[in-house]
């Protein structure tokens, strides 16, 4: 089972900085490996700013980076990590690094993993996820543009099952290339199936979840069966998703704003703390150093049970990250 119980405590680790006391104990995954409960997502992080942001994050105390082949910035992340290791800012074993298998590489799992390792300049991954539960037409390892048919609809490969993909993921663990494996954007049905056919159980299911899209049934199902839930889009996407998908964010919700004032915290801090108190891992993305500090200071307060219930009442079952805009098909329909 995933060790998720108990109030976060101060953690030890490499490096020294004034924010060390603001950290929490990592959670223990079903694989036996430990994952920090707060990470930095690098989705849509501009390549020219990645070095400074990652080095700043590591200096602040972040020890968890969430990457993906689809983000098209693994090489830049790798350069920053190499510098951090070379200068002694952190040791490799102190940083938990996640990346993801893209849709078009379901039939080329080993090659895709090795490509990500090469770009990230790593010998192993801490966590490798199946990014979406769909295989699409192969377009070449390292290329992640959506494979669309002549009709403008995602060209789904119906010859590769998710079970086949998962067994290839398991082989990565056997080869020592990956320590833990997991899934992403899987619903209850697909997660149940993965548990049934897996030899190595998924350690993580990374999903969109935030106060407007709480997905309580899926979160509880995963946690009941020893799968850690990581919340991508943990504050509801904010400006990034508004720009891409035209969605709104819970950052502007009056209930959230009132509670943030009550606890003398920013709205983002209140939302991220809510995610942590649900026993989910949060991986907010930011391109501003001041927000790196803000998003990491989550362990000097706790939201009361009464206020957690109030937040529960603002759920809109509202997805903000909708790839149908690019794929011509709603895979969540």
Automatic annotation (TrEMBL):
Positions of the catalytic residues: 71 (proton donor)
Region (Disordered): 1-24
Stored Pfam families: Aldo_ket_red
Ranges of residues in domain NADP-dependent oxidoreductase: 41-315
Chain sites annotated for binding substrate: 131
GO molecular function: aldose-6-phosphate reductase (NADPH) activity
Residues the record marks as site: Lowers pKa of active site Tyr: 100
Highest taxon of the lineage: Eukaryota
SUPFAM superfamilies with a match to the protein in the record: NAD(P)-linked oxidoreductase
Entry keyword set: NADP, Oxidoreductase
Protein family membership: Belongs to the aldo/keto reductase family.
Name the record gives this protein: NADP-dependent oxidoreductase domain-containing protein
Lineage: Eukaryota, Viridiplantae, Streptophyta, Embryophyta, Tracheophyta
């Amino acid at each position: 089972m995933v060790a998720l119980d108990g109030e976060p405590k101060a953690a030890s680790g490499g490096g020294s900085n004034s924010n060390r006391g603001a950290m929490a104990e990592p959670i223990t995954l079903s694989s036996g490996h430990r994952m920090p409960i707060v990470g930095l997502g690098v989705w849509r992080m501009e390549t020219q700013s990645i070095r400074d942001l990652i080095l700043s994050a590591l200096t602040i105390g972040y020890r968890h980076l969430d990457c993906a082949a689809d983000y098209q910035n693994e090489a830049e992340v790798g350069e920053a990590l190499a510098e951090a290791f070379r200068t002694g800012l952190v040791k490799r074993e102190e940083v938990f690094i996640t990346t993801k298998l893209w849709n078009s590489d379901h039939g080329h799992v080993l090659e895709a993993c090795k490509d990500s390792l090469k770009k990230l300049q790593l010998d192993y991954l801490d966590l490798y996820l199946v990014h979406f539960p769909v295989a699409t037409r192969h377009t070449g390892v390292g290329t992640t543009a959506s494979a669309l048919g002549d009709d403008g609809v995602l060209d789904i490969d119906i010859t590769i099952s998710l079970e086949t993909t998962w067994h290839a993921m398991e082989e990565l663990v056997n080869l020592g290339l990956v320590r833990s494996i997991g899934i992403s954007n899987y619903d209850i049905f697909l997660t149940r199936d993965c548990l049934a056919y897996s030899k190595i159980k998924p350690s993580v299911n990374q999903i969109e979840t935030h106060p407007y899209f709480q997905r309580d049934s899926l979160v509880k199902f995963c946690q009941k069966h020893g799968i850690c839930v990581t919340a991508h889009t943990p504050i509801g996407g904010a400006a990034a998703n508004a720009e891409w998908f035209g969605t709104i964010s819970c950052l502007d919700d009056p209930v959230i704003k009132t509670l943030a004032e009550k606890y003398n915290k920013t709205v983002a801090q209140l939302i991220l703390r809510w995610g942590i108190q649900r026993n989910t891992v949060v991986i907010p993305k930011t391109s501003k150093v001041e927000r790196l500090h803000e998003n990491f200071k989550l362990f000097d307060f706790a939201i009361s049970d009464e206020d957690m219930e109030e937040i529960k009442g603002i759920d809109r079952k509202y997805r903000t990250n909708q790839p149908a805009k690019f794929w011509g098909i709603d895979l969540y329909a």
